[in-house]
Amino acid sequence: xxxxxxxxxxxxxxxxxxxxxxxxxxxxxxxxxxxxxxxxxxxxxxxxxxxxxxxxxxxxxxxxxxxxxxxxxxxxxxxxxxxxxxxxxxxxxxxxxxxxxxxxxxxxxxxxxxxxxxxxxxxxxxxxxxxxxxxxxxxxxxxxxxxxxxxxxxxxxxxxxxxxxxxxxxxxxxxxxxxxxxxxxxxxxxxxxxxxxxxxxxxxxxxxxxxxxxxxxxxxxxxxxxxxxxxxxxxxxxxxxxxxxxxxxxxxxxxxxxxxxxxxxxxxxxxxxxxxxxxxxxxxxxxxxxxxxxxxxxxxxxxxxxxxxxxxxxxxxxxxxxxxxxxxxxxxxxxxxxxxxxxxxxxxxxxxxxxxxxxxxxxxxxxxxxxxxxxxxxxxxxxxxxxxxxxxxxxxxxxxxxxxxxxxxxxxxxxxxxxxxxxxxxxxxxxxxxxxxxxxxxxxxxxxxxxxxxxxxxxxxxxxxxxxxxxxxxxxxxxxxxxxxxxxxxxxxxxxxxxxxxxxxxxxxxxxxxxxxxxxxxxxxxxxxxxxxxxxxxxxxxxxxxxxxx
Length: 550
What we know:
Elements: H1 4-17, H2 22-48, E1 53-56, E2 62-65, H3 67-90, H4 97-116, H5 120-138, H6 145-176, H7 181-191, H8 196-213, H9 231-236, H10 244-251, H11 261-282, H12 287-307, H13 311-341, H14 349-356, H15 366-387, H16 396-419, H17 424-453, H18 457-466, H19 471-497, H20 502-508, H21 511-518, H22 523-549
Helix pairs in contact: 1-2, 1-4, 2-3, 2-4, 3-4, 3-13, 4-5, 5-6, 6-8, 8-10, 8-11, 10-12, 10-13, 11-12, 12-13, 13-17, 15-16, 15-17, 16-17, 16-19
């Protein structure tokens, strides 16, 4: 059954290639996608019932059914099923209809092969093929030069990630004498303490591979520029392609019980990516490109969670973000269509605040909202952790996650005061109710994911401890970040009192920063220059060898 999971999409791809009628292509591919999803649900239930194991046809063709592979298979096949149904009408009358569905099926097959593989080289095969099929999907309309150009960018970054992962796999296989995950993890548990340096190197290369696949700085630029491809592809990328970095780090979780460098690197790069992705999203005039940079920022959060040792939470983030962002991409076409028909912006309170600068009078004193802003979100976050039986202050990683939860809630409450809602108390109650549901769901589901994915809690404890830094430095960082956040709120509050608008300030006083963000920090120009240099170097090398041969 596990071996059948990546095989079904291959059968579908081979079948639809020989079909000429669009309706039959759609029906056959959708039927196989539905069968794949139902099979993945059966395997997920099997894993929940304790039916984990390794199933091998040959030494190379061996498949792994465990909590992570079952859960990832269900996520991938579910998003794939939705994208299949969506693409039926979206790609209607497009040239290469059957070819598109065949590539869609092959991409899903490669992802499922990656998440279920037991043999290291089989895992690498699926990992590499995923990037290859993504390139063909992005360049499906090969008449569009930008699609082909940026599709090539994607392929280059994916190949770089493949190289990092291959080095990591070879280090692990040769260092511990096993090409099967089960044997490898057993030997890491036995010999990990004596081979820490090897595990540090391997863990770092796995993280570097995750950076390339999950669009982390400086490998992030390929993702926003894939928007030239068909919209269903943008949605499908959230089914285990762009968020595959979270999976691959979780797959090699036992490595990080003895490796620290990769975790610290994941946290730092993830933090930079999260901030940069959020900033660049705000200045994009194109809705799909804005969603692309939003994904970059979310993938930064996912890598941060992995860097903090919260591996199961990273998988939950992968799942939740994959579902809602795939939906957003599929909805973006409707938004664009509606905007073309009616370009007027809906006039709500936020619109009036930023454009017309009309503010309803505030009925509550500012210190009332200040106390709510600081105390209520913090209390909700702590309560949610205590209710779920999670010690929020035991590990540094948990404290950082609590801190981000508090900042998010406080910023939401502060925004209600900032925009001056007509019924601030009523609006505030709705916001706090929503925030409570989100936090409780996030903590309870994240904790459930951890117990499901890692029943061996000792492994998770060791990873959390490896992710920690010097306590004094950690406490100073938290205090500094808190001071920056509070100073930001005061700055915005006094900007409000003097009727100044933040966007106007950004353009006038920080024109250089605004230009840098609008030009995406010149990453694109840098990549183009590097590409030109490599092309010139390649031509000259070719001429040199031709001269030597002559």
